[in-house]
Amino acid sequence: MLRYLRTRQAKLTPILLLSPALLTMLFVVALPLLFSLYTSLTPYRLTRPETIETFIGLRNYMRLFSDPDFWSAFGRTILFLAIALNVEFLLGLGIALLINRITWGQRTLRTIMMFPMMFSPILVGFQFKFIFNDNIGILNNALQSLGITDQAIPWLVDAKLAMFSILFAEIWMSTSVFAILLLAGLFAMPRDPLEAAKVDGCNSWQVFRHITLPFIMPFAFIAMTIRSLDVARAYDIVSVMTGGGPAGRTELLWTLIARTGYENTRMGQANAMAYVSTILSIAFTYFFFTKLVAARRYMGGAE
Amino acid sequence: MSRALKNRLRATALWFATFLLMIVISVPGLWVVLSGFRPNREILAKPPVWIPEKLTLNNFAKIFGFGQDQVAIPVLEYFRNSLVIATTSTLIALIIGMAGGYAFARFRFRFKNTWFLGLMLFRTVPGIALSLPVFMLWSRLGIIDTKLGLIIVYVSLNVPFTIWLIDGFFRQIPGSLSEAAQVDGCTRWQAFWRIEFPLARSGIAAAGVFAFLTSWNEFALASQLTRSTDSKTLPVGLMDFTAQFTIDWAGMSAMAFIIIVPALILTFIVQKHLIAGLTFGGVKG
Amino acid sequence: MSRLTAKALIATALVPLIAAPAAAQDYGNFEGETLRVKLIGGAQYEPLYAEISKWEEMTGATVEILSRKNHFELDREIKQDIAARTLDWCVGSNHTSFAPQYGNIYADLNDLIDAETLAAFVPLVLEHSTVDGRLVQLPRHSDVSNMFYIKSLFEDEENKAAFKAEYGYDLAPPETWSQVSDQAKFFANPPDFYGTQYVGKDEAITGRFYEMLVAEGGQLFTDDWEPAFNSEAGVRAIDWFVDLYNANAVPRGVPNYLWDDTGLGFASGTVALNLDWAGWSAFFNDPENSKVAGDVGLVRAPKGSSGKRTGWSGTHSFSITEACENKEAAASFVTFLTDHDRQMIEARAGLLPTRTAVWDDAKGEFAADGRDFMVEVFDTFSASMSEDAFTPPLIPEWIEVSNELWPRLQAAMLGDMTSQEALDEAARDALVIMEDAGYR
User: Fold this and answer.
1) Where does the ABC transmembrane type-1 domain lie (chain B) (predicted)?
2) Higher pLDDT pick, B48 / A120
3) Which residue of C has its CA nearest to A52?
């Protein structure tokens, strides 16, 4: 009897402990998502609340699938995510390796390294809008003063440069997250295999390639997962810097959704887009998460 | 040259190289901070003014309304709101995260991995997709433009990551410690607070910093759910410097300085815990 | 503040008639009432709100400012309120370009404000404030653009001779848009100096295109609301922008420019000609902010090939919600905020008044103070406000149509499409919007 109670209790306790977390998520995320799922099946317009009562089935989704603007924004978003996450990883790794070798004053260096994390995305947007301004921006001024160019480079307008500029801003803001997590990984690394490898005559590249890198990959996947969770923060940056323009060259799903929903007031249509974009971020997160679980197994850590 | 000296020199050179690199990385941010102390005319000038002709506190004076016919920006209210909202939501997220993390680390139950992943995936929904439904729900509940409304949202933003870190951390601590304490007559509750909690402190601190920074800097949802000085936070307050035709970049930079400094100080203080927390929290266990 | 009051006193002494009618106004007694309001924020607009306490004193009512943000954010907030049915406030800032979107949430002021008060406003502006025959907003201050230029460039003898040799006519402040085009190319010396510039995204470029379209003799819609901007006039209008962009006479970044970029660009002294709003006048001539202070010339917006001047105009205003429980108090409040003395406060800062009398009185005051530039500004802008100004079509779909138009305008500028293709494509999508909205 006692044993029965114990197992019962053991079964209930985790549920009890998890319930606050689950309740918050249900309340703040699941419930609103249900609502937006419903509105994505209506011609809902913000300024005409009564339109929410008309049911039009999958019409919004059908429209999406035949809308080239949506698909190019979709593709561009994937490209944006892929480039941003990879570059952030590489840069973060480089920074972490450098700082890891330093023994004195590291706390200060780490704080400087995390400096960009203190910046609100909206601020980063304004900041780079001004830095990249072609006429009076500090970047072109610097390039011209140094004699590197005599042109006013249209950073936010040129097809490739505009994408580069918003990527630069995003990468500037978020590389720190990678760096700090990878640095944590390096700290956790046991010394013995490194010493052993050196004794065996491996050069530093081989040591890095075969010992360090595999060890910190799980940390990299954690960073990727975490970043893919809130990468939509880039919306604030892009909407201030280019607003998706010019001529749709930097249009990402999020800018498109915001314009459709709030400016054009077609909330039904916007929510259909939002659903597709949610599925996209879920796919990204799921992908990194499975990688993480695999890497953990490889290390024999978790489970 | 002796070997020791050579090593010493190399270490110093490396330090300086790294330091310089960090400064270069920070340049766009430092430019913002510096802009807060310069007049607009000098920041966005052509030909450029590289060496500031004068540094001024005018931008700050304007924010606080010391200038003539200049309307003050209620920066103290914003600061208070930001502080209350970020701190409260971080604390609540940590408590919920500790409960959840403990459950994942110490108990076996069915579909554990699925639950865990599900919790993470909730977090992936882009803010822009949530903004209107949350707004509608909040307005039914009458918590639009209240600190409470924003706190609830931020708690849910931070809970998944907090659970993740803390879960990893608890796994790191051998269960035998707590069991031993229970044998000695502690309840599980007491054992948790006396044994496991102190050991997990770093992980909790790391999760706390991340949660705090997220809430402190969040803009997209805050700009939808706040309206007046009752609840507007600092990042939303930045928009006070934009009007239909103008952006007061110098003023905005000054305000940015006010936002950045507290976050930076906090980060510096908890540095030690941060690294340790992330080290053991995420992967091992 | 005291400096301003002193000036006001001098002005009143010089023109004794001004203050009399305003002082006699009775704003009623609303003891114990609380008025909930949402106002547009921003440095330019806020000085007026310092006056609110005077109205509170006179009427005994309290004003609770629920929010104060820039217009685009306020717009979003109001749309959310409509959606969530939380219109629990009385007075909101409004704008002629935004007003049609809000449907019937705002009351018809013809029923709330007496005809005598309304008669003191500029008739054309009241007309612009009317949607579907309902006066949904009381105009606060108007805006329209005219051409600012760097004076010394046009007075320089070498420039004059060189220009004449190249273009065959005298260099003088532009009268037509094709002259602007010539002069812009003449002065341009990228990347250090540009002939002119324009905004390149959002409703801003749609508006600029729209006024050019009108000046070229075209129209946005036919009388049956079918998109008609993909006409020859439309192509001429868009080509003006494309041509200057390709000639490098404008900064390469213009497709990403908004009003702050053009304003700051002109103030940085690197642009010869700049079509811009009245609100910038004082800024351009202020040595603290602008390098061209003291060297700023101003002419009326040039003419297009049809002989019509460009004159895209908008007016900031106040509206009263239908849901408001005390419309009388609200009406008294908005009347106060737009009365003679209040408009004088805004006019002194360079905002364009909507009351006929304030135009003259403000000008008189500037003259008395020796602010010659501001006199010139008010002369020029009053002429264009009364003769050239027109609004975008006052339909709810304006912003949505604009969102179809501006990415295409950019595409034409950047060479992704020809002008005709860009306009055809925008027209096709605009037609869908109009059909969806039930116009056809």
Assistant:
1) 79-270
2) A120
3) C83
- The stretches in chain B having pLDDT less than 50 are 282-285
Q: Is-contact A234 A227, C-beta < 8 A?
A: no
CB contact under 8 A, A247 and C255: yes
CATH number for the domain that contains residue C57 = 3.40.190.10
C86 close to B (CB below 8 A): yes
Q: How many helices (H) and strands (E) does chain A have?
A: 14, 0
Instruction: List all residues of chain B from 27 to 56 with a beta carbon under 8 Å from chain C.
Output: 39-41, 44-46
Task: Give yes or no for a contact between B37 and B56, defined as CB atoms under 8 angstroms apart.
Answer: yes
Residue C308 one-letter amino acid: K
Contact B152 A27 (CB under 8 A): yes
Put simply, the chain A residues between 54 and 83 with a CB less than 8 A from any chain B CB are: none
Lowest mean pLDDT among A113-117, A125-129, B164-168: B164-168
User: From CA C367, how far away is CA C388, in angstroms rounded?
Assistant: 25
Give the pair of three-digit tokens for residue A109: 């260096």
CA end-to-end span of chain C: 55
d(CA C268, CA C194): 11
User: Per-residue pLDDT averaged across A82-110, rounded?
Assistant: 88
Same domain assignment for residues C133 and C157 = no
Please count the structural domains in chain C: 2
C-alpha neighbours within 13 Å on the C-beta side of residue B85: 33
Q: Which residues pair with C314 in a beta bridge?
A: C143
Domains of chain B from N-terminus onward: 3-63 (no CATH), 75-281 (1.10.3720.10)
String of DSSP letters for C140-200: EEEEEEEEEEEHHHHH-HHHHHHHHHHHSS---S-SBHHHHHHHHHHH-BTTTBBS-----
Helix (H) or strand (E) segment spanning residue C109? none
CATH classification of A92-115+175-270+282-303 is 1.10.10.1100, yes or no? no
Is the same domain home to C195 and C174? yes
Q: Quickly list H helices, C36-103.
A: 52-59, 71-84
Of C70, C268, C290, the CB nearest to B243: C70
Angle at B79 between CA B73 and CA B81, to 5 degrees: 110
Q: What is the pTM of this model?
A: 0.86
Nearest chain A Cα to C401, which residue?
A: A264
Q: What is the pLDDT of residues B123-139, one digit of tens each?
A: 778 777 788 889 889 98
User: B64: Cβ–Cβ under 8 A, 6 or more apart, which residues?
Assistant: B72, B73, B75
Render pLDDT for C259-312 as a digit per residue (tens, 0 to 9).
888 998 898 899 999 999 998 898 899 887 788 999 999 999 999 999 999 999
Q: Is B107:A1 a contact under the CB 8 Å cutoff?
A: no
Contact C400 A263 (CB under 8 A): yes
**In a shared domain, residues C210 and C65:** no
- This complex has an ipTM of 0.88
